[in-house]
């Protein structure tokens, strides 16, 4: 995993774990890698992964079974989507609108490009 400089590593790891959940690689109530295992895979300090897992527990994306490890929460995918949607609407969308406005990009052009994007994704992703 390539880490970016503009965001804390534990948050980037939380995004990585969340992606695995959204992609269906880790299912509800399935055990996820241990702190040490994930730290080794990502070549980070185990304390960083523990901080990530603490955050994801607070967000009700994962849960801990004492002595057994961490597991994907039953409603994890929906929770991740809700959290990401809120973050997008609060932080990223206003920046997008600012850029669109500064560059005089019309809503029609945005709609056309979004429709093209959806067609391309439909061709790539299996149904």
Q: What does this molecule look like?
A:
The protein is mainly alpha-helical. It folds into two domains: 9-75, Winged helix-like DNA-binding domain superfamily/Winged helix DNA-binding domain (Arc Repressor Mutant, subunit A), CATH 1.10.10; 77-124. It has helices at residues 9-22, 35-42, 46-58, 76-102, 107-124; strands at 62-65, 69-72. Strands 1-2 form a two-stranded antiparallel ribbon. Strand 1 and strand 2 (69-72) form a beta hairpin. The model has no long low-confidence stretch (mean pLDDT 95).
Gist of the model:
This protein is mainly alpha-helical. It contains 5 helices and 2 strands, in the order H-H-H-E-E-H-H.
List keywords for this structure.
Arc Repressor Mutant, subunit A; two-stranded antiparallel ribbon; mainly alpha; elongated; 127 residues; single chain; 63% helix; 5 helices
CATH architecture of the largest domain: Orthogonal Bundle
Shape: elongated
State the CATH superfamily name of the largest domain: Winged helix-like DNA-binding domain superfamily/Winged helix DNA-binding domain
Helical amount: 55-70%
Strand and helix order:
HHHEEHH
Number of helices: 5
| Biggest sheet: strand arrangement | 1-2
> What's the count of strands?
2
CATH topology of the largest domain: Arc Repressor Mutant, subunit A
**Name of the level-1 CATH class of the largest domain:** Mainly Alpha
Strand content: 5-15%
Q: How many angstroms does the end-to-end distance come to?
A: 28 Å
Low-confidence sequence ranges: none
Could you say how many structural domains there are in total? Answer: 2
Work out the radius of gyration: 18 Å
């Amino acid at each position: 995993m390539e880490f970016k400089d503009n965001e804390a590593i534990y948050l980037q790891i939380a995004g990585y774990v969340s992606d695995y959940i959204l992609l269906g690689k880790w299912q509800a109530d399935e055990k996820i890698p241990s702190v040490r295992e994930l730290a080794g895979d990502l070549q980070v300090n185990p304390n960083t992964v523990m901080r990530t897992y603490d955050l994801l527990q607070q967000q009700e994306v994962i849960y801990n079974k004492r002595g057994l490890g961490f597991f994907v929460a039953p409603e994890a995918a929906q929770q991740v989507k809700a959290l990401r949607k809120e973050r997008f609407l609060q932080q990223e969308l206003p920046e997008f609108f600012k850029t669109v406005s500064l560059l005089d990009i019309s809503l029609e052009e945005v709609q056309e490009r979004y429709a093209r994007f959806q067609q391309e994704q439909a061709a790539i992703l299996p149904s």
